[in-house]
Design a protein that fits this description.
With 283 residues, the protein is of the alpha+beta class. The chain contains six helices and 14 strands. The strands form four sheets. It has a seven-stranded mixed sheet with strand order 4-5-3-12-13-14-11.
Length: 283
Amino acid sequence: MSGAVLLERERLTSGTTWHTAGLLWQLRPSDVEVELLAHTRRVVSRELEEETGLHTGWIQNGGLFIASNRQRLDEYKRLMSLGKAYGVESHVLSPAETKTLYPLMNVDDLYGTLYVPHDGTMDPAGTCTTLARAASARGAQVIENCPVTGIRVWTDDFGVRRVAGVETQHGSIQTPCVVNCAGVWASAVGRMAGVKVPLVAMHHAYVVTERIEGIQNMPNVRDHDASVYLRLQGDALSVGGYEANPIFWEEAVKYRPRAAGGLCLKTSTEKVCAVWSDDLRRA
Ligand SMILES: Cc1cc2nc3c(=O)[nH]c(=O)nc-3n(C[C@H](O)[C@H](O)[C@H](O)COP(=O)(O)OP(=O)(O)OC[C@H]3O[C@@H](n4cnc5c(N)ncnc54)[C@H](O)[C@@H]3O)c2cc1C
């Protein structure tokens, strides 16, 4: 870690990270993802806190996958088997058992659910602050309010373009290695080195409800057929969806991060209802 420098244009988390849902589901169809998620969960729920003495804000409220057809339930049974191989505890529940676990849920049209008790919710700000603290303790430097304005490159004897350094308004850093982690702005940073980053932002809508009595400590919910998620947010729910016809947002790169108004746009009730008609039926 020693010698690594993180340059942030504004403040840490000011890009997409501050408003992420932070859902951590441990069971995915690919074994590589299952291992990566298990590692992430270990770091966020235990190791970072042990190393820094700071709480990352991790909440272990569990995760619930909803099956509204037989094929989806079969898939969840396969996920449960995969989880067993990796030591991830999970349970396939009947609609009645699901109702006992999550009394507010309408389970009339459910075939069953997959419940993973050790899934949970990450706090983006807490996780990021703790990661930065751990990295600094190991010799890394985090410099905020320091936009990268240019990347110097040179061409070696074999015609390969290589990085020589990074320019900022406050000076330059000589380095042979740059990691581009500028999120939706990555294409702009890539262009500074003559690299095309194949990345385009899309609009994503989410709604935060008012306080709901009885929602406290309920697991996060994912309905793969309806393409929606329900995330516990204090005493309320945050409801988001994966739009079937996403709207690409090429101009996102022109927006400054959070401090200057951010990437958040207002949406309309009609648009939200069009995306989540299935989900609204569930509650
Ligand atoms: C509503 C919502 C829900 C989500 N839910 C989940 C979820 O449940 N689980 C999940 O895993 N993911 C989720 N995501 C996705 C997740 O939030 C993102 O993948 C993640 O936050 C991206 O982090 P990042 O560090 O790559 O980008 P960012 O957080 O956008 O960070 C990029 C940083 O680069 C900085 N930057 C830009 N240009 C420059 C420059 N020239 N010089 C210096 N710094 C620069 C910006 O200021 C910014 O801070 C969700 C996203 C949203 C919007």
